[in-house]
Amino acid sequence: MLVIRMQRTGRRGLAQYRMVVQDSRQTPTSGKNVASLGHYDPHTKENGVDIEKAKFYLEHGAQPSNRVAKFLSDNGVKLPDWVNLDNSKAANIKNAEKLRKNRPVEEVAEEPAAEASEAVDTPAETEETPAAEEPVVDTTAEAEKPAEA
Which residue of 13, 98, 103, 117 is 20 to 30 Å from 36, comparing CA positions? Predict the structure, then answer.
């Protein structure tokens, strides 16, 4: 079975990719390609794809990888029905309901309003009944005395 995949080229830190047609049993780095369909530079986002060759190999049963299928669909190639594009970017997160962004917004909005109404009531009460002043006890003097043995 033939696959259309990306083959990494370029030096360390500056990757570039060739879009190649290979036998599915070969590794992408083996260099045994049936055909080269184009190139992709992720740094400049340059994408040079031979659309006619890509359509030819897709019609003859070549299976594109997810990234290649996305590139081809972005370039206007109509993909066969059997090609599945995975458009879901949502990762499976454990306990997703506990995340802050998934909490209901209504509860967060009600709490500050309730606190504000309580804050308005408390100054009025303190003005009516002044609190008796208590003498301040100096606890630091007791803590500074070393225990003599």
Answer: 13
Would you call 44 helix, strand, or coil by DSSP? Answer: coil
CATH of 2-74, one of 3.90.320.10, 3.30.1320.10, 3.90.1150.10, 3.40.50.2020: 3.30.1320.10
pLDDT at 127: 60
Domain boundaries, the chain: 2-74, 96-126
- In tens, the pLDDT along 24-80 reads 887 777 778 888 888 888 888 888 888 898 889 888 888 888 888 888 888 888 887
Rounded CA-CA distance 51/64 in Å is: 13
Predicted confidence band of residue 113 (pLDDT cuts 50, 70, 90):
low
Burial-class residue 26 by CB neighbours within 10 Å (0-12, 13-18, 19+).
Answer: middle
CA distance to 35, 112, 125, per residue, from 65 (Å): 15, 51, 71
| Strand 46-49, strand 35-41: pairing | antiparallel
Q: Take residue 18 and report the two structure tokens written for it.
A: 């060739």
Q: How far apart are CA 64 and CA 37, in angstroms?
A: 12
